[in-house]
């Protein structure tokens, strides 16, 4: 299908820009003999005469010896043509034969270095372990490892006898380790960029201090002098100084004009062991045939091998040559750095002010062991840099581009040895020369696995394009499609290209794709348009085709049309049209990468085949896509056609009482809602959104229609979304709010209106489930974000917060048995009390803790605390504790602390605990009622008593726990302190506390108080005696008062009677009745009581006798 075909093509176009123009799909590989270190050194070379040819020069320092060399391994130089054949490299015929009386070529490492002057120039290759022998097979035989080099003509032969052939600078000089006996000339070699000089490094001279030789490469050059760096005992002019012994000066060499002075040639040499950190010397020639150090750059880390490799190039094209120094052993363990390359941008020759940029490699990669000036790979006017990291995986080469600011620190391209099947890839580099004839420099990469890889640079083209849309604004009420009803938009795109050089002008075919509503589809929304005339395999929102550009600057245009879908929702955001394009066939070569890596043998049969030209690549400086927008004509947005809404959000947490009844949660002192978690299953969040003008006096400023107004709520995992409810559930709603939640309920989007009109407001409830709230939940945070495609700056998300408290459903109740007590008896000292019955009245407190929720053991350590008023402020006993016991089913009975009965009194048997010893008679004076106080309250909370806190552990109980506490009133204290009180109220308090790591526990109804009323025993007033003299005085006072009263009454004549004639006094005679005849006697004898049978009749005429009469 073409639809899937275009999307991968777009990805390939982007990858092509990222990988840029060194073609990793059409590489050229060459193999050497196994174990020969073929690829230890490499050089690109182009021969101009006698016939043009391009060569890949490869050093193999462990190649087998020629038969005439009388050795096993001597090394050699190989030349490889630009053909697809893997094994068509041939050995350059140099260093044939041997004079065993003067030399030894065994393990001389010919090919340890190889350099080319470029197109039509000379070649140099060296054998730094070549031995000069003297007095062979004699007692004083010597072998000096002086090294030697060969200079070849451009056709790889020794044609000029004066300039070509063998170069041995250390031969004939004083031998020995402290002089030139271990010279190792040619470990590094280079040509100067002006083609006049050749440089040789000799790091073994002067006890490994090292030396740099510079001399002319052409016998016709007027300067025939040989320049060398100073001897150890030679005074060096200038302030730069020199390097000490064991510095390995000459390990790497290079040169350039404009390092210290414009247009003046300077020489550079690395000394990777100088002062154990490494150093790089910049030297100039003087009149005494010396190379004098002008600047010394020193390494920053011990054993980092700073100066192992060098590259001189102009990265920013300012005319001053810049310097790159490799330090492959640099490392930082914490940052996983292995190897570094220091980039010095030339500060106009003032190297003491240079501050390098350090490019870092991965751990163990040996990044910076090889550096190469790659030339201007992309023809942007700035030289580029290649850095090898042979142990970064299979090996990598990093390509860095130059710029007017210096170097671009991000690699423009990374070449990977794994992609071509080569290991230890990137050990040697050579670039800056075009060998395939497309005027772009190529790059040759060596390895330690006997393989080299040529990467050719693809030409870079710059495509100009222009996209226009007609009409520029969409009117949804006007149909403008030509052959059908609907709203259409026409697209016109025009292309042209330029390239460097101007002579490069091939025919290009561009593949392009129009894509509409890309951003909306990326967000998962359906596209709003469909292209007309698209291919059957193209999706409706895309149109793909090709356009041909015949040459540079030629202009070609294409057209396309899309139609808007019916009933689109988003009428405010513009429709974006993206044009993406690429060069047709640019990615085809990439499919051959697998054949290069896995089917090397297949290319062996194509010897003599020419390399196909590479297709160009788009410049990464220009994006390969262009985005254009077409806008809607906006309605409801004021005269300026700019919708400026003013959405405002108000919210509050509510408790849900029913399906449609909600009550706001209480708030703390800081205004945060407090959610008490007990047994409710959900909580509501009231949302109120308005779209009103911010200033009623200037309504045109804002408050326009809010298109696609959406509220996005993000919930914590403890409070997922459950449902949505209207603000007034009893009244029907015309446009109910629709909320769509994600799968786990962590986010919900509520559509408020499209548009939410000016002056409108929306109010509803979000129902949130509380099933995820745990004991560790302390607060809840819901992020609320309003969004609209209308303009409203500063529309930031807000957070609705609620503090969670865990409310424990505990209740504490208590009762005293009996609720009223009496005191009396006699005062006894504490030492006189032996039994509990001697203390006073008994009382029993029963405290019940009820639990309606889960077991307390999941919360922490719970305790029941009983505040026992044991004494008054003067220290006298008040309520004596006898026994405390806690029963909490289903667990065992628990004891409280501290222990009760501190005086160790004898406790009564279980059935006699209510008995109290009868009080002995006392002599207490009971105050009159008028003298007594009404009542007194003894409460530890008020400070009128002192309490002893008994803590009883509540380990675990299902429903209830009962604490039983027995005690007795201390009679003596009450007789001494509270005799003049009508009643005493004694308060005992009980409370539950929980010690837990949970900080938001709240105990509700977790305390109680138990009152006991105490009265004076009435028996104390009767049994209590009054002193006798008080009674005597009271009696005498009473008699005296009575006599005084009688005297007064007598004086007043109260006892005086009136005088009158005495009446006749009746008289009678008494008759004695015998006892036996008396009525009382008869009743006592008979056992019955009868009515009296006698009466006395008084009569004035009586003679005084009494006549008995029957009843």
TrEMBL record:
Residues passing through the membrane, by range: 1028-1050
Keywords from the UniProt entry: Cell adhesion, Glycoprotein, Integrin, Membrane, Receptor, Repeat, Signal, Transmembrane, Transmembrane helix
Region annotation Disordered: where it falls in the sequence: 588-623
Membrane topology: Single-pass type I membrane protein
Pfam families: FG-GAP (PF01839), Integrin_A_Ig_1 (PF08441), Integrin_A_Ig_2 (PF20805), Integrin_A_Ig_3 (PF20806)
Gene Ontology MF terms in the entry: integrin binding
GO cellular component, one term: integrin complex
Domain Integrin alpha second immunoglobulin-like: 637-803
FG-GAP repeats: 291-353, 354-409, 413-472
InterPro entries per record: FG-GAP (IPR013517), Int_alpha_beta-p (IPR013519), Integrin_alpha (IPR000413), Integrin_alpha_C_CS (IPR018184), Integrin_alpha_Ig-like_1 (IPR013649), Integrin_alpha_Ig-like_2 (IPR048285), Integrin_alpha_Ig-like_3 (IPR048286), Integrin_alpha_N (IPR028994)
Keyword Glycosyltransferase part of the UniProt annotation: no
PROSITE patterns with a match to the protein in the record: FG_GAP (PS51470), INTEGRIN_ALPHA (PS00242)
Signal peptide residues on this chain, from the entry's feature table: 1-19
Residue span, Integrin alpha third immunoglobulin-like domain: 810-1015
PANTHER family: INTEGRIN ALPHA, INTEGRIN ALPHA-7
Similarity annotation: Belongs to the integrin alpha chain family.
Protein name per Swiss-Prot or TrEMBL: Integrin alpha-7 isoform X3
